[in-house]
Task: inverse folding
């Protein structure tokens, strides 16, 4: 629910889906939002994530991405 300016590619991540059978592939980018992000379509809520975030609320793919962001010094 927002327009963005992509600044750089971060990586590609693959893991098992959280709620269904199958795999999920995520291509992650660093970007700057042009306006206030809003949830839409299947996204029910937005939340800022840092190292103290309750990881039980994350899907499998973000359980891979968030620790990598921390290891790389981005959060």
Result:
């Amino acid at each position: 629910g927002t327009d963005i300016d992509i600044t750089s590619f971060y990586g590609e991540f693959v893991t098992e889906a959280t709620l269904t059978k199958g795999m999920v592939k995520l291509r992650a980018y660093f970007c700057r939002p042009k306006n206030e992000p809003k949830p839409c379509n299947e996204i029910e809520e937005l939340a800022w994530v840092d190292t103290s975030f309750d990881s039980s609320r994350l899907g499998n793919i973000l359980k891979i991405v968030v620790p990598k962001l921390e290891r790389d010094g981005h959060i």
Remarks:
- The radius of gyration is 13 Å.
- The mean pLDDT is 90.
- The chain is about 15% helix and 30% strand.
- The beta strands are 4-16, 23-33.
